[in-house]
Recover the amino acids of this structure.
């Protein structure tokens, strides 16, 4: 039977050749269309890795010198930092708030900015590309975001750890990429641009892998402690992250909180500009697609196992780290 089928097909090979070509063409076109859809759908279903459901964020602004009520003395660095931290304490005491933490810098989960670096594991000769996120110790940063504890210290212990200049916290996938283990005990790495006189960075703890941006697969991330606040980051790069208590309605909270913050989150030249739920921030980022060109190329090169991001260009918004440290 099979011989007869193949014999008939071969006898009509010219006519069937066009049919075969059409089938091949349709298969190729279908694959080109469906492949990215399947990949995006798969990536969207990867767990976010932190609890964004009860998060919202307050952004700040400052009076301009020509604005009524502007106070030149309020621009003093100590006053600016003090007012900012006072805002965080006031928000923490607001009804319905479980946790509130300061967020400094332009690179944090689902931010519009990014900061990348190339790191070596101690004793290794292959550099890995990681994203760098700054945080302020002793502010319950990790609990407020809802990160999950990795091996070693809990997120509560990582928030209250007494960090030194070069201590870092890594995600599990960062540890796997650098050290081929998710155990941070005794692990150190150093900056790829400081090979001649390497300054080692001890990994003091870990959090579980998370997606830095919802449209990305998880990438290696390192958390770098801010030992002193740079007042020039206020107000543009200073925000307040809020985690609501369970069973508190986000819509009702935002409605009441907006009216309150206009009156209460104002000191010197600093004031609260707006508050948005984290879901809204994620949606806006996905809609606008404001992904820095360097990071887009970097992500593609990372997925292609050709890891070299920092060499392309410095992302827009890049700033040196505090205390004279350099990332690249």
């Amino acid at each position: 039977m099979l011989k007869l089928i193949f014999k008939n097909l071969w006898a009509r090979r010219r006519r069937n050749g066009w049919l075969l070509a059409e089938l091949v063409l349709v298969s190729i076109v279908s694959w080109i269309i469906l492949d990215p859809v399947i990949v995006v759908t798969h990536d969207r279903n990867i767990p976010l890795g932190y609890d964004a459901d009860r998060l919202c964020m307050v952004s700040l602004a400052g009076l301009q010198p020509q604005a009524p009520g502007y106070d030149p003395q309020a621009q003093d660095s100590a006053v600016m930092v003090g007012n900012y931290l006072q805002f965080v304490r006031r928000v923490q005491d607001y009804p319905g708030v479980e946790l509130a933490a300061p967020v400094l810098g332009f690179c944090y989960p689902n931010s519009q900015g990014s900061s990348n670096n190339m790191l070596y594991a101690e004793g290794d000769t292959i550099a890995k590309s990681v994203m760098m996120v700054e945080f302020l110790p002793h502010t319950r940063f990790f609990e407020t975001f809802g990160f999950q504890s990795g091996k070693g210290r809990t997120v509560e212990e990582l928030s209250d750890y007494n960090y030194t200049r070069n201590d870092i916290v890594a995600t599990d996938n960062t540890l796997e990429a650098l050290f081929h283990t998710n155990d941070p005990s005794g692990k150190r790495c150093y900056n790829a641009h400081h090979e001649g006189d390497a300054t080692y960075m001890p990994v003091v703890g870990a959090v579980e892998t998370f997606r830095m941006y919802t449209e990305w697969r998880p990438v290696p991330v390192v958390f770098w402690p801010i030992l002193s606040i740079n007042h020039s980051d206020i107000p543009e790069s200073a925000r307040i992250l809020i985690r609501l208590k369970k069973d508190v309605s986000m819509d009702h909270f935002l409605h009441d909180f907006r009216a309150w913050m206009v009156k209460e989150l104002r000191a010197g030249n600093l004031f609260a500009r707006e508050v948005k739920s984290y879901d809204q921030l994620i949606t806006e980022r996905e809609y606008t697609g404001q992904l820095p060109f360097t990071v887009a190329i970097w992500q593609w090169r990372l997925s292609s196992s050709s890891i070299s991001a920092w060499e392309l260009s410095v992302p827009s918004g890049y700033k040196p780290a505090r205390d004279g440290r350099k990332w690249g």
